[in-house]
Records
---
Amino acid sequence: MSKPNRNNGLDPETEFAEIYRNLATYEFPWDLNQSLSFALFRTYAVPSVGRLLDQTGASTQNTQKRYDDTSILLEVPLLEGFDSPNGKAAIQRINQMHHMYDISNEDFLYVLATFVVVPQRWIENYGWRQLTGDELLASVRYYQALGRHMGIKDIPATYAEFAALMDTYEAAHFAFDPGARRVADATMNLLASFYPAVAKPIIDIFSRSLMDEPLLAAFRYRNPGNLARRLSAAGLRLRARFVAALPPRRTPQYVHTMPRIRSYPNGFDVKTLGTFAPGCPVPHLHSPQPDTTTSPS
């Protein structure tokens, strides 16, 4: 007997935030957390993104805090709404940090596309069930709204357009960069730190097993081999079958309460998260301008 879907009956055009919140906190909390982390990891393979993150130092010198801040700042608007005081403060912090640097609209679009496409592909391969058409549309609408609040221009209209943008951008821009490799290594080390030290070699092989050939090549990571890939995929699919057999989740799972978020044991103030100027190592020239409605009222 299949589990009831709490998103049944919700309109993806008007209730997309509630649908996506249900996906993130009830239906697929682990899968979305893993896949969104992997989506961000993919962006490092674009040298203009990975090199900038290396130059700022936040991703290599204080990797845990950057991971925590990014996770929380993305989660707050989802939980409380774009127009809530904390939601506005989170978007404002995201925009303030981005406007410290020279980031092209094309890079912003690519990163946004990974948030839409990578989770869908992850769930398609490893989820305990597939997303419905309405849930996929709601995911698209949610990230279109986030993109507008960030002032991103020329946002794709459909999932197919997001997928084509991501695949085309990666084919054109994935390349090796020493700084990007340092950011990737720091992120891999952080991932390993979430598990007992003896598991680090296994986590390393498992992580590389989930990377496609272009991503491995961009970081010059060793191919883990077909056996490791098959075993890793089998493990994720076995997990999916186990989750499918469990009763429906009754309480939401929030990212900011997960044990891997370690920087704020006593709570956090959204307005103080992230990095602040001065200290920008590169000039800013043409970053998208944020939607003015995101400033706290």
---
Amino acid sequence: MTSVLVVEDDPTIRTSLIEILTAHGLLVRSAPDGFGALREVTQWQPDAVVLDLGLPDLDGADALRMIRGLSQVPVLVATARDDEREIIDLLNAGADDYLVKPFSGGQLVARLSAVLRRCAVGAGALEAGEAGPAGGAPGVDRAPVVAGELRIDPMARTVHLAGRELGLTRREFDLLAFLARNAGRVISKRQLLAEVWRQPYVDEQTVDVHLSCLRRKLGERASRPRYLHTVRGVGVKLVSPL
């Protein structure tokens, strides 16, 4: 059974979230503050966290960074703050997605399910509706790409890090392979959407979410990158660690 930690200081909202998630078959525990959340993440080790930002002891952004120091658990931020810069900073700090309050129970469950799918570990995990042309993503070169301990094989559609195969979704693989083929170049999110997604009207937040999942699987954070380096206001590039 999938386990979810709800971090919310308002008892009415906390109870409502617990009831919604429990009704959808999830095992739910809660914490009313940031330090309680850190304790639960360490001891209970949930499969996902729903994190409010307005906590009584820690700002939610600080709690997120502390959680990231302890665990790579997927984190869905639930916030009343809708400032775009702050949301981007949260995604770069390790959040996997966000919901702006107020939101419906249906939105919460759908976003949480999507985060769990995107960040699922295991080869062969595919995202619905992401099938590309036969043989892989458009423009994929045949030769493997090596960057440091990272080896990307476009023909086998496999990625190995220090000899260990990583379980990437189809879209994560296509994104990483495109960045690897353009290693050292800063690629804008608009270009990534055009070249990797090849779909009109896709939000740039989609790129942020996929990059966040990729960083987790590569064992890095946006604040301490090894392979995926963000150039603020420009884009992202893949480099070989020194």
---
Amino acid sequence: MPQPPADPTEAIAGSLKAQRLARGWSLAELAARSGVSKAMISKIERAEASPTATVLGKLSGAFGLSLSALLALAEDQGGERLSRRAAQPVWQDPETGYRRRVVSPRGERGPGGIELLEIELPPGAEVPYPAAAFAFQRQLILVTEGVLQFDEGAQRHRLAAGDCLQLGAPADCRFVNTGKRSCRYLVVLARR
């Protein structure tokens, strides 16, 4: 029977610290590169705070990684080809309630792989990401339930169930659920 994923806060803490130390960066240097305070980075690395999606987007951009790649590094990278729902890693933004499930088998994730994510965005939730979080990947968004407002730079897209959008050049983006029920969508990522 599949084991549930490890505590995501601790896994993210270890991955973040490992990435920072591998580059020889101090907390101050990562703070300067990401725009995230030194105190917040320290709390995240000690697993005393669960980072928001926005903070993770800034940190991943500073490392030159996609958000998915940073989170994938926090997970065990086996060569599995089957991904059972009970074993799929789930991360929830403590601020917005945004839930991100990695659907892809572990063997597919990482450099050169294609990733499939399932996202649930609660009513009224808004998640911004800097352009740096999109610089290393191509991305498709397919809405499966509800309506998603997706701001891509100055362009606004309104996506309903069944609508699929291919992102353009990296730009600051914002995912918004203006509806009264949760919005669910799939994201397909491929490294550029």
---
Amino acid sequence: MKHDDQDWEDRVTAAWGSFDAYGEEGAADFRAVIDALVAELPAGSPLGPFERACAWDSTGRSDLAVPLYREALAAGLDGYRGRRARIQLSSSLRNIGRPEEGVELLTPELGAPSDELDDAVRATLALCLSSLGRDREGLALVLESLAAHLPRYRRSMTNYARALN
């Protein structure tokens, strides 16, 4: 299900743009703003649990975000937001001591169509791998991502990354 209300999207973007102004003491107030926006969505919209998960996650409650990310994905969240949900869910799983689930969730994303989230996929996957004691694999992913942004030494870094696996 897609939500095409640009006004709603703009208000969600504005809410997230003001996130830092809430500070730690304003976490509940920020979540209330997101909850009010979510209440405007049609029943069953995957955007609701996704935005709520993001709000819980961003205010330090990965444990409460995990089931909401799963709900959003199960409800059909796809595309860019679906990819964000898989990245953020993997990070949250790592934060609550379940990095192996994060690896399982993100590994298929390495073969997904390329977009601006590619580096976030690799960085989050690297953190999950590191939490499992698989630092060399994680370092290889990070070096591979970094190599794409280097004006020089791109080929060398890519080869070094491959050699780590």
